[in-house]
Amino acid sequence: MQQVKPKKALGQHFLTDLGVAARIAATVDGCKGMPVLEVGPGMGVLTRFLLDGGHDVTVAEIDPESVVFLNRNFPELSGRILECDFLKMNLAELYPGRDFCVIGNYPYNISSQIFFHVLEFKEQVKCCAGMLQKEVAERLAAPPGTKARGILSVLLQAWYDIEYLFTVNENVFNPPPKVKSGVIRMRRNNVTALGCDERLFKVVVKTSFGQRRKTLRNSLRGLVTGIPLPDIPIFTRRPEQLGVEEFIELTNIIAQLRNQAPEQ
Questions:
Q1: DSSP state, 55?
Q2: Can you tell me the distance from the alpha carbon of 108 to that of 110, in angstroms, rounded to the nearest whole number?
Q3: pTM score
Q4: For residue 43, which of 9, 134, 254, 258 sits 20 to 30 Å off, Cα-Cα?
Q5: Left if phi > 0, otherwise alpha if psi is -120 to 50, otherwise beta: which for 164?
Q6: What confidence score (pLDDT) does residue 263 get?
Q7: Residue 102 reports pLDDT greater than 60
């Protein structure tokens, strides 16, 4: 069987360990009854276990050589092999009015962008799982008070319960990456609204972590003009110390101050 040549420009590191592939595929076993979208299937090592598990699988693959390989070797996926860039996909059009799951061995070079894109369709993506660079996987699941915590930690944890499941060593890939990998699973929580201005919430989170070594008083003062930030304990803290609820509280404080500020 002709193999696909890994392409550095696409961040391709093909998983060769079938045991690991089976474990990753099993992370969405709770999604039975929902369609599953696999991102970047490559030569289908994960795809095979998803199909054997009875999932309704569609795959999105940007590499033309991989698309040819998949069409040749997975006839059961006829019509469900999409040659496209996942980051440009309108997932609501792919699954109109339906809940679905996303899974993949995600390219390290765009993994953060992938999860930002998933977040745009949070009302339909009930589960998102898969493998990415260990450092990024740890960041997504990082609880308050840890150095790994960052922008994606807070934005995703507002809507999903996130588990870091297991670590994968470098020697089970072709070619081996220079870093270890981590497998995570995100399950949609019961939150329907944050209780704050969600646009401002994103701005507050991104601005806070944009200067993460500073206290929130120093990093957020630019969001409010013409009025000083109040002397309250939350502004003496640093962003990685805050949970989602505290960022919501902070957002509401900033919104209130903006309403009080004199017009410029």
A1: -
A2: 6
A3: 0.93
A4: 134
A5: beta
A6: 64
A7: yes
CB atoms within 10 A of CB 93: 7
Identify the bridge partners of residue 128 per DSSP, sorted by sequence position.
102, 186
Sign, Cα dihedral of 251, 254, 260, 264: negative
Tokens of 153: 């930690």
Q: Token pair for residue 245?
A: 């609820």
pLDDT (tens digit per residue) in 49-87: 999 999 999 999 999 999 999 999 999 999 999 999 999
Task: State pLDDT tens for residues 182-232.
Answer: 999 999 999 999 999 999 999 999 999 999 899 999 999 999 988 889 999
Provide the β-strand partners of residue 35.
56
How far is 216 from 239, CA to CA, in rounded Å?
7
Distance separating alpha carbons of residues 84 and 189, to the nearest angstrom: 29
Domains of the chain: 8-188 (3.40.50.150), 198-260 (1.10.8.100)
Q: Residue for token digits 């930030």? A: 229
SS3 state of residue 92: helix
Looking from the CA of 138 toward its CB, the CA atoms found within 13 Å total 10
Please state, in angstroms and rounded to a whole number, the distance separating the CA atoms of residues 232 and 88.
Answer: 43
Identify residue 72 by its one-letter amino acid code. Answer: R
**Tokens 């550095």 correspond to what residue?**
8
CA 71, chain centre distance (Å): 27
Q: State the number of CA atoms in the 13 A half-sphere of 96 facing the CB.
A: 1
Cα(179)–Cα(182) distance, rounded to whole angstroms? 10
